[in-house]
Design goal:
This protein is an alpha+beta fold and about 750 residues long. It has 19 helices and 37 strands. It is elongated.
């Protein structure tokens, strides 16, 4: 219940809560309806509509001379839009920039900004403007009785509430705006495509959105960058009225190493793009790029050259990285929130937008025809009176000369109406010529034919619809152009990982017994020959690439991972792994591994159990690593052996015995204890495992003693997994290594 009262001085009193609520609601409705959101009829915000109308009132048509922008802005502010001149001028500038509007409404002369910096336009006292030819589609029928007029802010002038757009401008140039509690972002579209969709709807109002998208497949921006939004997302956008559009720069490759970018996404600044790429180059995050040059000029408004390091660089991968990390690819929000014919804002889908606009256009055409019919009937009425006067010209002249008040006398004598009598009295003497009667009868005949045609169209909904369709197609032919933004199905942009961005170099990682690690360039490194701290010695080494991960394993069966490029140089003693990894108490590092993530290897313990796994199963982002193989108490992890499909596995025990069996008899696991490798007496352990291809010779190393086994001897040890195996000489009781024979 209202808390307002009126005191003795006649001053209205309200509670602060009630006053604040009403004031804010009034402000919100003003911003929504009269500032930020476009009307579905002409697709314009109030400030844009007022600028265009004021320019037309100043006579600034496409065929006239340009006038100072300050003159236009002054007229707009003084007559229709009492707001800031800078905001008004900026709205005018946007309508003149061919890189901001798909179809410009203002033809500017002077500095109206650039694609690189849209806000670099000159002050309004320096620039000149007139309306573009396209703006006639919005203004052409303004004076033909097609619009409702409303008083301006001070009530001294009238302005059109909505312009009588001949085309669905709401979709052609699009718009964006932020109101109170809602926003709008309508992307631009192609005129020919939108008109084709309108014609399809006129022919079949039940056309589905999927069928409409055969004519209107996607938005069409003012640039030639590629739209890579999937068809499913576009269908969702046009069905719900909100979604997003993704646009990607267009490029071509020249000379194998130069990537020429000739189209940037909508509203992307070239200078900002240069800064983004330069920042990555300074941070050494673009090793594949040598240089970036801006070769844009008058003939090529957009030409950026990315020079790659060599022809071996994968251009697509490099560009996908740039798409993901710079403005070479950009996403635009779409929200079809507009003020409908009912005067209320609503998010509309494509079908609703076009259907409602066609209702508006059909009504506009009907009003135009009715306005013309009224004019024709009024003229015919006057011509009827004038013809009567000419047929009785002598008597008419006599009445005019003799009567003090000829008008009532004419009305009484010839049965004229007030309007007819007035037109007869206003005739000039030169129109009393003998041929004037023929002219009147000719004009009557022409107007009569026009009247019949107008009444025929107005009396038939089908004929009215046909006229709307014909006019739309004519405007599409005259003002339409080809699509600028091509549609493609591109790979999703993906930034390269830190490892991928690094140069790929051969490295050897060396691990010491005390857990110190270092990496040396090249694969011809002998870790035993390197220098070590006092009390330390060589433990293990692995060769690979600097982009790969290095796997460390401890004697408890846990695996740890570090990027190879992050390891210290072999020029020093390196650094302890315990500074970067959390090793369990009492454990020690025993193994180091490198290779491709898909490489397979055998993990086994001295207790005689093992399994096959992939190297990527040993990767861990955790400093504490991850458990990979379960090691029974008193056992240790054996040196892993790389393995491939079709190979044999050789197992040697301390008994000593040797068993050979196919690799496919071992399970492939991510982690666990594994299956039994070989049957051996209690107290014996497995010394080593190895994988080799059938037919190869294998050498067993026990201290300084070595023995080579050929295919025949290996065949004697061949059996199934978990069998006893072949007894070896006592000299091989302590085998420390198995390798292929030289």
């Amino acid at each position: 219940m209202s808390q307002q009262t009126i005191n003795y001085e006649g001053i209205e009193q309200k509670s602060v809560a009630e006053f604040s609520e009403k004031a804010y609601l009034d402000y919100a409705m003003y911003v929504i309806l009269d500032r930020a959101l476009p009307h579905i009829g002409d697709g314009l915000k109030p400030v844009q509509r007022r600028i265009i109308y004021a320019m037309s009132e100043l006579g600034l048509k496409a065929s006239s001379k340009h006038k100072k922008s300050a003159r236009t802005v002054g007229d707009v502010l003084g007559k229709f839009h009492p707001h800031g001149d800078s905001a008004c001028y900026e709205a005018m500038v946007l309508m003149a920039q061919n890189f901001s509007f798909r179809y410009t409404l203002v033809d500017g002369q002077g500095n109206w900004g650039s694609m690189d910096d849209p806000k670099s336009f000159a002050a309004m006292r320096y620039t000149e403007a007139r309306l573009s030819k396209f703006s006639q589609l919005l203004l052409e029928e303004t004076s033909l009785g097609t619009v409702d007029w409303t008083p301006n802010f001070d009530g001294t002038l009238d302005e059109p509430s909505v312009l009588p757009a001949r085309v669905p401008h709401i979709l052609l140039n699009g718009t964006s705006g932020i109101a109170v509690g809602m926003a709008t972002d309508v992307p631009p579209h192609n005129l020919r495509e939108v008109i084709a969709g309108c014609v399809a709807l006129l022919e079949n109002p039940n056309t589905s959105i999927e069928e409409l998208m055969e004519f209107i497949p996607a938005p069409d921006y003012p640039n030639e960058a590629q739209i890579i939004t999937s068809k499913e997302e576009l269908i969702k956008l046009y069905t719900t009225g909100h979604g997003s559009i993704r646009q990607r720069a267009h490029y071509e490759v020249e000379d194998g190493v130069n990537v020429v970018i000739d189209a940037l996404p909508y509203q992307v600044s070239g200078s900002k793009l240069m800064e983004q790429v330069a920042a990555q180059m300074r941070a050494k995050k673009l090793p594949m790029v040598v240089d970036l040059r801006d070769e844009s000029d008058h003939e090529n408004p957009v030409r950026f050259v990315v020079e790659l390091r060599s022809k071996r660089v994968d251009v697509e991968i490099a560009m996908l990285h740039l798409f993901a990390t710079t403005d070479l690819e950009k996403s635009y929000r779409a929200n079809f929130n507009v003020i409908g014919l009912n005067g209320r804002p609503q998010v509309k889908n494509l079908h609703m937008m076009l259907t409602e606009w066609l209702v508006y256009r059909t009504e506009t055409v009907r009003r135009r025809l009715q306005f013309r019919l009224d004019k024709v009937l009024a003229r015919l009425h006057i011509l009827d009176g004038m013809l009567i006067a000419f047929l009785n010209i002598d008597e008419v002249i006599a009445i005019i000369r003799e009567e003090d008040k000829p008008k009532p006398a004419l009305i009484k004598r010839f049965g004229l109406t007030d309007i007819q009598a007035e037109s007869v009295l206003e005739l000039k003497l030169r129109h009393l010529a003998r041929l004037e009667e023929m002219r009147i009868r000719t004009e009557q005949a022409e107007l009569e034919n026009e009247r019949k045609k107008l009444e025929l169209i107005l009396g038939s909904a089908a004929r009215l619809k046909t006229l709307v369709k014909t006019e739309l197609q004519k405007d599409a032919d005259e003002y339409g152009d080809d699509r600028r933004s091509p549609l493609i199905e591109g790979r999703p942009a993906q930034a390269m990982s830190e490892q991928d961005l690094l140069p790929s170099e051969a490295v050897t990682v060396v691990l010491s017994e005390n857990g110190w690690v270092r990496a040396a360039k090249g694969h011809d490194i002998d870790g035993v020959a390197l220098g070590y701290k006092s009390g330390d010695a060589f433990c293990a080494q692995a060769s690979g690439q600097s982009r790969q991960m290095t796997i460390f394993m401890d004697n408890t069966g846990r695996a740890y991972a570090l990027p190879a490029h992050s390891l210290p140089s072999a020029r020093s003693h390196g650094e302890p792994l315990t500074g970067r990894l959390n090793l369990p108490k009492g454990a020690s590092f025993t193994q180091v591994l490198m290779g491709q993530p898909s490489d397979k290897l055998i993990l086994a313990s001295s207790a005689g159990y093992g399994f096959v796994t992939q190297l990527e199963n040993l990767y861990s982002k955790n400093k504490a690593g991850k458990t990979t193989i379960s090691v029974p108490t008193g056992s240790q992890v054996l040196t892993p052996a790389t393995v491939q499909l079709g190979q044999f596995i050789m197992v040697v025990t301390s008994e000593p015995t040797m068993l050979v069996f196919p690799v496919d008899e071992l399970p492939v696991l991510a982690k666990g204890k594994g299956n039994k490798l070989i049957q051996m007496p209690k107290g014996e352990t497995v010394c080593a495992i190895f994988a080799f291809t059938p037919g190869q010779k294998v050498t067993l190393v026990a201290g300084s003693y070595e023995k080579t086994f050929g295919p025949t001897a290996i065949e004697e040890a061949f059996s199934s997994r978990a069998k006893k195996g072949l007894v070896l000489p006592r000299t091989l009781k302590k085998v420390t290594q198995i390798r292929l024979a030289n």
